[in-house]
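Note to self: the last two entries modelled the partners one at a time, which told us nothing about the interface. This time every component goes in together.
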Amino acid sequence: MNPAIALAFSLPLAVALAAIGSAFGLGKAVAAAMEAIGRQPEAAPKIQLAMVIGAAFIEALTIYALLTVFIFQGRVG
Amino acid sequence: MTSGLAYAATPASGEAALESPNIITLLHHYLPGFAVVEFLHHFEDLFFSAVVIFILALIARKVSRQSRSIPGRLQNFVELIVESLDNFVVGVMGPVGRQYTPFVGTLFLYILCMNLIGIIPAMKSPTSNVNTTIALALTVFVYVQYTGLRHLGLLGYLDHLAGSPRPQGVIGCLIAMISVPFNLVLHLLGELTKPMSLAIRLFGNIFGEDVLLGQMLLLGIAALGFMHSPVGIPLQLPFYLLAILTSAIQALVFSLLSTIYIFLMLPHEEGARH
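The predicted structure of the combined assembly is written out below.
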């Protein structure tokens, strides 16, 4: 297969797969945080802070996949 | 006219059309060959971060030189920002953290303004270039290591990197002999990966957001291209709200992680005392 065509197919797929994984991770993290806030509303700021840190780590993985897309974008042409 | 429109959607970088054009790429397109324009085009991220620094410095100077006991509007606003940044750092690190507020607060304001300046038309986020974010992350890296060395001393710092082994008895010593090299490698790798992930996270988010805005702009122009309309559909407008959100969250995450890295470097007894 032509490398350009292979890249054109695989690059969007790579981001999509990474996004699926991140979406599951984020869903779990945010759901747990919301539950915790619901049980203990007075601890909301601390829980939110921890949730944002975790969310940043999770979504960084998708960003890495997105970066590879940007790096290889020129080869698709 | 059409070439101008086509240009508006495709910066003249020679590569794939990514971000929406800013004032410097426009100058470079319409006035090529001027030494000043070439210089600015070469250092465009530095130019825009200099603009941010200039604005921040101007506000800080104006407020701190004429600080009054009954604050005006601007002073009130700045005091609110400074106080909430201080609360943020102290909330993460405890009262010891107050001395790190200037560093973390500066990082936060600087990154936030650099992210947000990309939303203004004809401006560009300097953080959408990986070199800017690497510079910021290296600053954090050096500051964290310096803080560790200053508070722990050279031996304490090495002890921290080795995982603070406190072996007891012969078996404990044997276990420590095996575990210390592993811990050392692990900690060193961890210290080196931290700035890398900081830099790439900020760059990827802001660059991705700017590219999204640029592509939506392109799509809006292309949608009306068949009738040679001089303006496109402003498809990128809803994404500006997303961009504001990402900018604020990424600035928060960068400064929060820097705070946590400094906190982890501090002596544990001191750090644990809240």
